[in-house]
Inverse folding.
């Protein structure tokens, strides 16, 4: 017989079960100790309870011990009580039948002499969250709210809120809100008062959507007696409770200016509080109260500046970033107030990158004529930072300051010095900034071009930088001696360029250079058009085809379209609308400020208001119908902002070689092209106005000039097939917003709505369901009678083409205003007819 395996002398760790039988062993040991009053029994129970909790924590199912754990809870040991309550709360929800076993001992503990046990038992009882057991909660909660101990009352108040979320009707029928309102105004303990305020706000806010009485009760929280009562006791509250009270006060509307000053005087000392959350909550009150008083509002900015800067310099980097985010918001609204404090925004060597980046944005915002030199000097030091992203941001900051100022002499010199640094990322960022600088200050072209001309295109690899260099080569080709030859070398390496943005800029630059120096650019233009028409990227192909047809029509017209006289850009577009910024300001002291976006952009639908409406697609509330079918947005490659779209002659049934055009891609003719050195551009205009279907002889003139070989025959444009939509189309809200901004309006129409449809709009979601039945999905909706706004989208069956629709319905005039944007312009009219047909049937039987 084999000897038994050696036993290990090491005792098993309570966090590591020794085998499958451990749960059974624990069960038998707990059963033996149940009801035992022997000396040391409680200590043994503690050890067993620790093992049970440990096993539960690491994911082992110990629900089979439920009965034994409940039996062992009959003890006065508070530590055992806590562990038992923790166990019960974890398994009660998933095992509601077992939860019945806990009711008796929890109700018994709710009447214990020890207030700590009463409170813990009541908290555990309310944490069971089993709908069938709500009848057992009402009695203990009623006693708990009237308990002499403040801890029990505090737990009972939160218990009422838990009961509401389990069964709202049971909570309202028991009239617990009346008791909470009484405790709010009369309880001596401030934590109980704070809990009452939190519970009542949440309950009445949720009830107000269905009950006018609840809406009126919610308004009473903002009445003068309640607000003043809470303000007079604010120093007694904990920090969390102070923030809760201050959030309420920020919504209060004073009756006159003297009341505003009384509140601010009362809260003045809160600005010196050590806790940053209290300081920010107080600042929000000051800002909200003085919005209608411009002079006082400016004084508030001056007053809150010192507390905010103090909070930035103290505490952890995470806290500094949160405070800096709020300070950044204020700086963007009133940069002149903070302009003298710019040194507070200098970056420290040991700060995290996210803090440095935010400080760079603030330095850009506070720069003015008096401090520009000092700020730019500091930013230039950061350009040599070992942290490359921060170095890039600092160079961009210098460029932004240059675009804001009138006197840019010193800044231009600094940017040109960046171009001479032997660091690729510095040169790349500087090129992009020099391009923007020349767009606003064309008078600096001579100085900038002299330096840019010495940069080899082979040393610039980043797409945006290469695109900026190519733009300057085309725009200032008359001042750059080698411009045509540099462009020609880039065209020769067309296939090696992977960025569509660079290829688009290259097409345009070659065209501009051709108009200014035709003999030297003729060959490069022909090669660029041939390569562009053969390009796999649809935008590049369409632009090349557009340029080709422009030249085919009239060279003088093409020059006016592609290279018109440029006007200096006075203001560059802001990335955020003023409405978005105001919305973020209204949500001061929240994550909206840290994320720099309104809350509806990052909070799930179920936690938002029921019906949000905004005037632009950037502020959409996502409908419930489309929420379930949202998929992650596919990455959309950024293209040239001034992209010239191509022709509408697109063959839906094209083969891969045709690349969407009725023309075949021209090939570069190896034979020598006719010389145009002695022929002015004006003489290159063609007599024919037709692009296809006209005399082929005139069309061949431009082909011969550019060295292209185009087939004489042209393919007939096929009739569009019937439009079918994908019934399961999905589109991510962010992708919708991006497409909406990128695409131009294809159709704008007004239609009438039937009386039945107007009547059915009393429930707007009925329209959403109706359109969905026609394979048209709603991604956002909003408004109130008489104006309703809807955003729809649809997808072409078996294709990636999307149709985006903005539909504004006025129930008074029974009219609908429809704007349609589409990826595929050729089928836009067919989709419009389909959309109108679906809309006209709304409300009909």
């Amino acid at each position: 017989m084999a000897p038994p395996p050696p036993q290990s002398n090491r005792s098993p760790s309570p966090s590591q079960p020794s085998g499958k039988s451990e749960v059974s062993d624990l069960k038998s040991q707990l059963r033996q100790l149940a009801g035992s009053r022997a000396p040391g029994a409680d200590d043994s129970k503690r050890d067993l309870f620790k093992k049970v909790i440990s096993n539960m924590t690491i994911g082992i199912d110990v629900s089979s011990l439920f009965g034994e754990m409940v039996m062992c809870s009959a003890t006065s040991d508070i530590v055992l009580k806590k562990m038992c309550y923790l166990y019960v709360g974890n398994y009660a929800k998933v095992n509601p039948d077992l939860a019945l076993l806990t009711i008796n001992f929890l109700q018994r503990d709710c009447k214990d002499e020890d207030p700590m046990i009463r409170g813990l038992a009541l908290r555990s009882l309310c944490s069971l969250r089993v709908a069938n057991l709500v009848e057992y909660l009402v009695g203990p909660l009623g006693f708990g709210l009237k308990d002499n101990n403040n801890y029990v009352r505090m737990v009972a108040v939160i218990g009422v809120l838990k009961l509401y979320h389990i069964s709202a009707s049971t909570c309202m029928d028991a009239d617990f809100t009346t008791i909470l309102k009484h405790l709010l105004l009369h309880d001596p303990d401030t934590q109980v008062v704070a809990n009452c305020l939190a519970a009542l706000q949440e309950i009445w806010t949720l009830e107000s959507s269905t009950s006018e009485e609840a809406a009126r009760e919610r308004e009473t929280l903002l009445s003068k007696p309640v607000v003043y009562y809470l303000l007079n006791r604010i120093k007694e509250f904990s920090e969390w409770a102070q923030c809760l009270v201050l959030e309420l006060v920020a919504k209060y509307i004073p009756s006159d200016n003297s009341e505003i000053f009384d509140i601010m005087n009362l809260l003045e000392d809160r600005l010196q509080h050590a806790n940053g959350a209290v300081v920010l909550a107080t600042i929000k009150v000051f800002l909200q109260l003085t919005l209608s008083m411009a002079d006082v509002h400016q004084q508030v900015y001056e007053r809150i500046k010192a507390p905010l800067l103090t909070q930035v310099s103290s505490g952890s980097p995470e806290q500094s970033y949160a405070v800096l985010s709020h300070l950044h918001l204020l700086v963007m609204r009133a940069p002149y107030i903070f302009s003298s404090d710019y040194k507070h925004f200098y970056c420290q060597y040991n700060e995290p990158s996210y803090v440095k980046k935010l400080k760079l944005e603030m330095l850009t915002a506070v720069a003015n004529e008096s401090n520009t030199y000092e700020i730019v000097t500091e930013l230039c030091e950061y350009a040599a930072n070992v942290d490359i992203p921060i170095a890039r941001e600092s160079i961009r900051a210098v460029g932004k300051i240059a675009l804001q100022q009138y006197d840019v002499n010193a800044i231009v010199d600094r940017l040109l010095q960046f171009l001479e640094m032997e660091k690729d990322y510095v040169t790349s960022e500087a090129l992009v900034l020099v391009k923007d600088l020349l767009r606003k200050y064309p008078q600096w072209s001579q100085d900038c071009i002299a330096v840019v001309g010495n940069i080899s295109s082979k040393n610039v690899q980043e797409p945006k930088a290469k695109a900026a260099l190519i733009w300057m080569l085309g725009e200032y080709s008359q001042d750059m001696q080698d411009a045509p030859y540099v462009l020609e070398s880039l065209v020769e390496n067309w296939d090696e360029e992977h960025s569509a943005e660079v290829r688009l800029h290259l097409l345009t630059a070659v065209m501009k250079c051709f108009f200014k120096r035709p003999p030297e650019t003729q060959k490069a233009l022909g090669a660029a058009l041939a390569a562009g028409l053969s390009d796999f990227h649809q935008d590049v192909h369409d632009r090349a085809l557009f340029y080709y047809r422009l030249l085919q029509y009239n060279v003088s017209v093409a020059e006016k379209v592609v290279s018109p006289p440029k006007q200096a850009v006075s203001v560059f577009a802001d990335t955020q609308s003023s409405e978005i910024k105001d919305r973020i300001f209204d949500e001061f002291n929240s994550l909206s400020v840290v994320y720099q976006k309104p809350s509806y952009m990052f909070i799930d639908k179920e936690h938002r208001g029921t019906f949000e409406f905004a005037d632009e697609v950037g502020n959409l509330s996502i409908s419930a119908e489309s929420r379930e079918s949202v998929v992650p947005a596919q990455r959309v490659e950024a293209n040239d902002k001034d992209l010239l779209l191509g022709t509408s002659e697109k063959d839906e049934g094209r083969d891969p070689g045709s690349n969407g055009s009725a023309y075949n891609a021209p090939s570069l003719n190896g034979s020598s092209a006719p010389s145009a050195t002695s022929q002015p551009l004006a003489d290159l205009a063609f007599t024919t106005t037709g692009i296809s279907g006209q005399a082929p002889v005139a069309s061949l003139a431009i082909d011969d000039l550019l060295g292209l070989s185009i087939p004489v025959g042209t393919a007939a444009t096929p009739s569009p097939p019937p439009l079918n939509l994908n019934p399961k189309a999905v589109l991510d809200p962010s992708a919708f917003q991006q497409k909406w901004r990128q695409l131009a309006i294809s159709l704008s129409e007004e239609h009438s709505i039937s009386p039945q449809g107007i009547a059915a709009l009393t429930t707007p979601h009925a329209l959403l369901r109706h359109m969905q039945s026609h394979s048209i999905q709603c991604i956002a909706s909003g408004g109130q009678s008489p104006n309703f706004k809807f955003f729809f989208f649809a997808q072409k069956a078996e294709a990636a083409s999307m149709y985006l629709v903005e539909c504004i319905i006025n129930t008074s005039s029974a009219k609908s205003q429809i704007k349609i944007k589409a990826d595929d312009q050729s089928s836009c009219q067919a989709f419009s007819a389909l959309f109108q047909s679906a809309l006209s049937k709304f409300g009909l039987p």
User: Anything to note?
Assistant: Residues 511 and 655 are 29 Å apart (CA to CA). Strands lie at 667-668, 708-709, 747-752, 777-784, 787-795, 802-810, 815-822. Confidence is low (pLDDT under 50) at residues 1-19, 609-698, 710-720. The two ends are 87 Å apart (CA to CA).
